[in-house]
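As agreed, record copied across for absentees:
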Amino acid sequence: MKTGAVIVFVFLFRMLHGQGLDLGTISYAPTLVANLSQVYNETSGLAYYNDTVLSINDSGNEPVLHAMHRLDGQHLQSWPIANALNLDWEALALSPTSVFIGDVGNNMGNRSTLTIYRIDRSALLPTTSALAAQKLNFKYADQPVGTLPVNAHNYDCEAMFYWQDSLHLLSKNWQNLWTRHYVLPTNWQDTLVVSPRDSFYVNGLVTDASLDVQTNQIFLLGYKKEQSGLYSSFMYRFLNSNNLFFGSEYQRIELGSTLSLAQTEGLCMSGANKGFITGEQIVSVITIAPKLHAFDLNIVGLSASWEKPSIYFHGNTLYIPSVLLPEYKLVDTSGRLVVEWQLGKNHQDLTNLKPGTYLLIGPHYRRTWVKTN
C-alpha cells in the first residue's frame, strides 16, 4: 500500500471511530406518568407534536400512528396509514413539514431492503380518518450478503431523528454493542444505498434517539443485559458542540431497571433537557405493563455547567490525579492488569496498548474504554 493511501486510511479510520470527551456517568430516575393501555403494548418510537406524544408499535401490529396525552398517557387518537405495511416499525421522527416512520427493524437478520414512510405533517388533524404515505426504500452499503443470525448481528436499527435537513439512523448492534451512524436525505427515488458516517461504542443496544432542538444536544436511549441476566436502561446525551455529534463531549445516564421502566423503546424531547420515554410491555415470568415516563434533567443541575471530570480518557491518554493511582487499575476484559502506573503524574500514556476494550476500576468506580488505534 502506498504511503498516501495509508495516510488516507488512517484518517478515515480515526474519523469513523473518533469520540469526544467522556464527561462521566450519572444515575437518574425518570418519573412515571402512567401505565399505558394495550394500544401501546409494543410502543417502539416517539415524537412530540403540539403538546402530544405520538407513538408507533413494532412488528406484528397494524400500520397505525397513535397519539397519547402527555400528562396522563391517555389514548387520544389513531391514524391508520392507508398504503403502508408494518414489517417492523421501530422509529419515528418529525421535520417541519413531514412525519417519518422507520420500518427499519431487523432483529431476525433477514432484511436487506428497509423502508421509511414519509407523511405530510399537516394531515395530523383530529378530523383525518387515515393518512397517506410516500414509501422510501434504502439499503446499507456495508451489510453482508445473506441472512444474519437472529439477535446476534450488527444490522438492526431502532433509532432515527431529523437534524440539519436529513434523517439520521443509528444501528442496534447486538453483536458488538456499538452503534453506526447513517445519514439519509428526506426524499429520494428508487432504492438508496447508504454507508456509515461514523460510529460510537455505547456498551448496550440503542433503541431510539432524539434531537433537543432548543439546546442542539442529541439524546440516545437503550438498554443492556447485566451480568445478573436482568436488563437496565440508559441514555446518552451528546453536547453536539460545533455539530460534531459523536465527536463532541458526552455523558451516559443510567436510568434503572427495565423491571420498573419496561423495555425502553421510545424517546422524544419536549423542551430543553426534558422529554418522554416509553417502555413496551414485557411478558416473561411476570408481566410488566407498557409505561410512559417523563424526565427533566434541568432539575438535577446538569445543564448549568459541564465540568471536566477529574478522571477521564482523551485520545490515548488517561487523565487521573496522581494521588488516586494506588486505588485504581486498568485491566482488559479478562481482568488482566495491562499497565503499570507512572507514579507522580496526573496523566498516563496508553499509546502502547493494543486496540481493544479495557476497564478502569476503582472504589465504587468502573468505566469502559475502547482503544481504536
Residues 1-17 have pLDDT under 50 and may be disordered. The helical segments are 3-17, 258-261. The CA atoms of residues 8 and 14 lie 10 Å apart. The chain has two helices and 30 strands.
